[in-house]
Amino acid sequence: MKITYTARKVNLRDNFKERCEKKLAKFKKIFSEDAIANVVVTLEKNRQTVEITIRDNRMVYRAESTQPEMNDALDRVIDILMRQIRKNKTRLEKRIKSGGSLDLLTAELPQGTEEPEEDYQVVRKKQVLIKPISVDEAILEMNMINHDFFMFINAETDEVNVVYKREGGHYGLLEPAKD
Predict the structure, then answer these.
(1) What b/e sequence results for 100-128 when a residue is b if at least 16 CB atoms lie within 10 Å of its CB, and e otherwise?
(2) Which residues contact 100 (CB under 8 A, 6 or more apart)?
(3) Any residues with CB less than 8 A from the CB of 60 and at least 6 apart, and which?
(4) End-to-end C-alpha distance for the chain, whole angstroms
(5) Contact at 8 Å (CB) between 81 and 54?
(6) What are the tens digits of pLDDT across the range 97-109?
(7) How many angstroms separate the CA atoms of 16 and 93, rounded?
(8) Residue 41, burial from CB neighbour count under 10 angstroms (0-12, 13-18, 19+)
(9) What's the CATH number of domain 132-174, 3.20.20.140, 1.20.1070.10, 3.30.450.40, 3.30.505.50?
(10) Beta partners for residue 164, in sequence order
(11) Phi-psi region of 74 (alpha: psi -120 to 50; beta: other; left: phi over 0)
(12) Cβ distance 133 to 159 under 8 Å?
């Protein structure tokens, strides 16, 4: 697994990087050697935010945590990622070539922490008319209808995009990407 670090308003020490690599080593049994883990650490006032995104074979796992201490945030993010993997265990088992490697990872977890399996159920289906508009217009329309996201055709790229509200009053834009 290749790990890249991004530090925002903070200098990362080697001991944090070593700790991060040790924690992410648990996931090497699950993901291929081509997996890419992006670790972003941000310092804002007295809060440390650690965000980890793992990409492998079109699977994306992402977790973020904000704590007063960087190491506490890292521990929380690893726990969240572990929970996501356990939740999607059946789907992952189909993708894992060597059997039992997921069992080794989940065996390290305390007993009784297994989350109940969920069946994904679509409870509402809605068709929306999408039209070519700018990103600013899409944000304006999203705010006018009081939604957290809005799908549209980007007038600049002629591709389907989604704008969404992020924490702190900011906005995000989802664009299609080719593998």
Answers:
(1) eebeebeeeeeeeeeeeeeeeeeeeeeee
(2) none
(3) 53, 54
(4) 18
(5) yes
(6) 445 555 555 544 5
(7) 31
(8) buried
(9) 3.30.505.50
(10) 149, 172
(11) alpha
(12) no
pLDDT, one tens digit per residue, over 23-55 is 999 887 788 888 899 999 999 888 999 999 988
Question: Rounded to the nearest 5 degrees, what angle is found at the Cα of 148, between the Cα atoms of 143 and 149?
Answer: 90
Among the listed residues 112, 119, 111, 59, the one whose alpha carbon sits nearest the alpha carbon of residue 85: 59
Distance between CA 19 and CA 89 in Å, rounded? 25
Write down the domain spans for the chain: 2-107, 132-174
What is the residue-averaged pLDDT of the chain? 83
Quickly count: other Cβ atoms within 10 Å of residue 4's Cβ.
10
> What span, in angstroms and rounded, lies between the C-alpha atoms of 70 and 85?
23
80-91 pLDDT, tens digit per residue, is 998 887 777 666
Question: In the structure encoding, which two tokens stand for residue 174, read together?
Answer: 């989802």
What CATH class is the domain 2-107? alpha beta
Copy the structure tokens of residue 170. Answer: 């900011």
Provide the β-strand partners of residue 172: 164
